[in-house]
Amino acid sequence: MLRIAVPNKGSLSEPASQMLREAGYRQRRDTRELVLADPANDAEFFFLRPRDIAVYVGEGTVDAGITGRDLLLDSGSTATEHLPLGFAGSTFRYAAPQGTLTDVSQVAGQRVATSYPVLVADHLASHGVQPAGIVRLDGAVETAIRLGVADVIADVVETGSTLRAAGLEVFGEPILRSEAVLVRRAGAEAPAGLDVLTRRLQGVLTAQQYVLMDYDVPVEHVERAVAITPGLESPTVSPLHNSEWAAVRAMVRRSETNRVMDDLYEVGARAILVTTIHACRI
Ligand SMILES: Nc1ncnc2c1ncn2[C@@H]1O[C@H](COP(=O)(O)OP(=O)(O)OP(=O)(O)O)[C@@H](O)[C@H]1O
Ligand SMILES: O=P(O)(O)OC[C@H]1O[C@H](OP(=O)(O)OP(=O)(O)O)[C@H](O)[C@@H]1O
Ligand SMILES: [Mg+2]
């Protein structure tokens, strides 16, 4: 039985459950459920605080879990990143009142407020910067400067609107680019079922990131067209009733759909059709 920890609250919770559902696993309907058995998939889900998930996985209490890369690094746990999951993307950055600081070296001698004290201490140490202190807060970190408990903050930034509203701006290089990740215990033998979970999640990611493209192209231009849509292994090329034309089918990155259609049209492809992929195993 594979034991998997899933965030019970916060921005990771709903998309993590949604991704597991798309991968064919049972997920809870009632947010008060703390444990959910999925006997058909030989799995059991534990709904835990996102910040605690790496700790449980590192201890081996559960086999794998979904958390944020930033939370994993801040936990100090021996759990290791197994698969990036492509949602809850953010950067982790220093910020200060607009027009004041420009470089991480200027954090020396300043008080830094953050919910991620280990991440910040490690980053400052790796840059040889000694702050006056690190103030650990649970949230609403952006308010700490106005309230006088810190001079600098280090926090999650997605759109930047929370910072702007607080009159702050980022400075220095990003400390980290974070996203939701599947974590597992480091060094231990892969638990039974982890390979299947991984392949299923990769299938969901691929279905989200790729489309299926079909088109007809004159036989003499097949090689040029296929160079534009090389597919994952190799595109399918089929004969058509009119022997001067061939049909091609290939997977294409969703973000490149329109550029690829333009390029195909240029080399003579016609009847270019794009279909979403519902599920796949690669
Ligand atoms: N606005 C955001 N955009 C993207 N990811 C975010 C955002 N806020 C938090 N995260 C990510 O969510 C994880 C933190 O989850 P956590 O549940 O602790 O905080 P939260 O989502 O801010 O919830 P809350 O503060 O309401 O409890 C981190 O991995 C962080 O990078
Ligand atoms: O760049 P933005 O799009 O504004 O998003 C970033 C904000 O979102 C999160 O806060 P949340 O709303 O979870 O509140 P919290 O600070 O209490 O955790 C995070 O801690 C930042 O404050
Ligand atoms: Mg928050």
Percent of residues in helices comes to: 25-40%
Order of helices and strands: EHEEHEHEEEHEEHEEHEHEEHE
Bound molecules: adenosine-5'-triphosphate, 1-O-pyrophosphono-5-O-phosphono-alpha-D-ribofuranose, magnesium ion
Number of helices: 8
Question: What's the level 1 CATH class of the largest domain?
Answer: Alpha Beta
Write down the overall mean pLDDT.
97
In the sheet with the most strands, the strands line up as: 2-3-1-4-11-5
Alpha-carbon distance between the termini? 24 Å
The assembly state of the depicted protein chains is single chain
For CATH, the homologous superfamily of the largest domain is named as: Periplasmic binding protein-like II
Strand content: 25-35%
Structural class given helices, strands, pairing? alpha/beta
Low-confidence stretches: none
Stated plainly, the CATH topology of the largest domain is called D-Maltodextrin-Binding Protein, domain 2
Based on CA atoms alone, the radius of gyration comes out at 24 Å
Domains (count): 3
Task: Provide the CATH architecture of the largest domain.
Answer: 3-Layer(aba) Sandwich
Catalytic activity: 1-(5-phospho-beta-D-ribosyl)-ATP + diphosphate = 5-phospho-alpha-D-ribose 1-diphosphate + ATP
GO biological process, one term: L-histidine biosynthetic process
Protein name: ATP phosphoribosyltransferase
Family: Belongs to the ATP phosphoribosyltransferase family. Long subfamily.
